[in-house]
Design a protein that fits this description.
Layout: E1 10-11, E2 15-18, E3 35-40, E4 55-59, E5 69-76, E6 81-90, E7 93-95, E8 107-108, E9 114-124
Parallel strand pairs: 1-6
Antiparallel strand pairs: 2-3, 3-4, 4-9, 5-6, 5-9, 6-7, 7-8
Length: about 130
Amino acid sequence: GVAMPDVPGLSDGDAVEFDLSGMPDMSVLSDKPRYFALKVKSDALSQAGIAAGDILVFDCDPDAQSGDLVCAQIVDYRLGTAETVIRCYDKPYLIALSDNPQHRRPIIVDDDRVQIRGVLIKQIRVKLFGSAA
């Protein structure tokens, strides 16, 4: 599958790791370490059209530009943990695109405690079919 970047203490946050190998159109990326995929859990980018359940594919390109949607990690050295967040990069800040007050605080990318891990290259919305109740 597509591996997350190797960061000790990586924990859930806005998204969780997702394996692309079972998706026909994306399986070609599953063996390339440059790419990784996450399944969205939060509404931090709802105003950008990204919803919980969407699959996002990221390029591990560290050269993010202002306006890019990115995956970043916020490390808590004291606790030895990291949180994965998905935000819009507005140099030097990560900002949410959501009405949720929980996400309103901008986060400064300092390349120490907060690092950009990848730039969004593809969004996949999986449609589930079934009987309507």
